[in-house]
């Protein structure tokens, strides 16, 4: 029996899934108390890099108010089976990623 935090989105022919799970990430807005639309990345490091690229634009809301946001890993996604596992974890405060 699967655990409560596993959702079967698509039943593929491979029940074992892929060896390379992808992460599902979101930016949490501490003032609004809600998550932004999730995005998928290969690793935690590539998710951090993607956010760092956004922060380079000083006009972007994430850059302007970086102290209000955290990067969060919501879980993992198996691109072969379509299985999503919910395992939330705080990664980093965006203000720590900001470069002057």
Give a structural overview:
With 100 residues, the chain is an alpha+beta fold. It has one domain. Helix content is 16%, strand content 36%. Strands 1, 2, 3, 4, 5 and 6 form a six-stranded antiparallel sheet that branches. A hairpin with a 5-residue loop joins strand 5 and strand 6. The N terminus is likely disordered.
Summarize the structure.
The protein has helices spanning 44-55, 61-64, and strands spanning 6-8, 22-29, 34-35, 39-41, 69-77, 83-93.
- What percentage of residues falls in helices of 4 or more residues? 10-25%
Largest sheet: 6 strands, antiparallel
Parts with pLDDT < 50 across at least 5 consecutive residues:
1-16
N→C terminal distance: 50 Å
Count of folded domains: 1
